[in-house]
Design goal:
DNA-binding, six-stranded parallel beta sheet, homodimer, 204 residues
DNA sequence: TTCTATATCCTCTTTTTCCATGATTTTCAG
DNA sequence: CTGAAAATCATGGAAAAAGAGGATATAGAA
């Protein structure tokens, strides 16, 4: 028997998965949590084999929760679950220890296959998710330093170089250097495209 | 008996609602469509009393589909359905003839209540949706014109005023005017914050 | 029909960003 | 310890955007 637990704040999705799985052989439905906090509370009492985890939770992101659960309970496999087929989300979930990722339009077969694969310790990506993740061009997120990330955030907030300089207690020319470096790393022509890329990559 | 049809590309949600409704009294489940095209095809054959309609469909937006169905079949009540509790979406659905709006985290009771109210010709908004709709301000997407949207897209791509002017065959000062207007409507200080807001609102 | 919103165009000034080309200090991993 | 990466600072000039204050034409709604 595979013990399944689900974390998702959408009642209809929870109900859908429960309905799909209740007649499937070898599945032990342990229940569900509507948010990260009650998921963590549940895990102090019981340990499922697999957690189906939504990315959008009311109290914290599924991406953060994934990391936390994976660190505290390395034996539990996590299967990411969301409406969005966005490469940055999938990537982050996998980076944070998820064993797989499926979309909410997945079929029963796909869901069962995912559960079986993950149970065996393998990884599973649904067709569409895999396609997205392995897309060739695949807007790779550039490797930026923490200071650059800080500056990028303030730039996106609409602060000018001088304002950022004041806030960080550095010279405005230094801010400019970081900015140039960001434009280079993102291969962006100007601030507008830089901010768009960063936003679409989920960095800001 | 209330004849119910659902349009949603998320299999798990469809399954969840079907599971919730199949034991409810007075509900006649007519089936579901995964996209706008097959919904319209279905309606040429049969006429449900109520359509549960997702906002995000693969082929066209639920907002457009709502308008189309409402015009062609005024007798069918439409109940908007989505993950997003965003004011502009709710507003647009209601403007386009929807009789109500519920979120995917609604309970069975809420769903049944919505169906009953809508069946009687009344409107129903789920608690959270109603709260959002009547919220004074928050992150409302500004009403921008099609030309402004066009310019916004090109700005976010990293084009300068001159480049945009060339591409649209207008003067660079006109582009500047549109840009100023965008900054005003978004209440953004500069391009960086404008692009960030637009990206986070999903406009670009 | 009149009014309003949209789209178009203009000048001038100031601010900010972008570009090129440097340099010094700090920090951290091998 | 030592070198590489990161973070810091600088100058001077070119390009672009922002801010202020206009104007005209047109299409659609009241």
């Amino acid at each position: 028997m595979t013990k399944i637990f689900i974390v998702d704040d959408h009642y209809m999705v929870v109900e859908g998965i429960r309905s799909l799985l209740q007649n499937a052989p070898g599945i032990d439905w342990m229940g569900h949590a509507m948010n990260a906090a009650s998921c963590l509370a549940f895990l102090q009492q019981q340990h499922p084999d697999i957690i189906l985890m939504d990315i959008n939770l009311p109290d914290k992101s599924g991406i953060d929760l994934c990391k936390e659960v994976h660190n505290k309970y390395p034996g539990i496999f996590i299967l990411g679950l969301s409406t969005f087929n966005q490469q940055s989300f999938i990537q982050k979930m996998m980076d944070n220890g998820a064993s797989g990722y499926i979309l909410k339009n997945a079929s029963l077969d796909e869901l069962l296959e995912a559960i079986n694969e993950v149970k065996k310790g393998r990884t599973f990506l649904s067709n569409e998710a895999a396609a997205t993740l392995h897309k060739p061009d695949n807007t790779t997120i550039p490797l930026i330093t923490s200071r650059e990330k800080e500056v990028l955030g303030l730039v996106a907030e609409g602060l000018t170089n001088n304002e950022i300089a004041q806030q960080l207690f550095i010279s405005h020319t230094t801010v400019e250097t970081h900015r140039k470096s960001l434009l280079n790393k993102f291969d962006a022509k100007n601030t507008a495209s830089l901010v768009r890329m960063a936003a679409q990559m989920g960095i800001i």
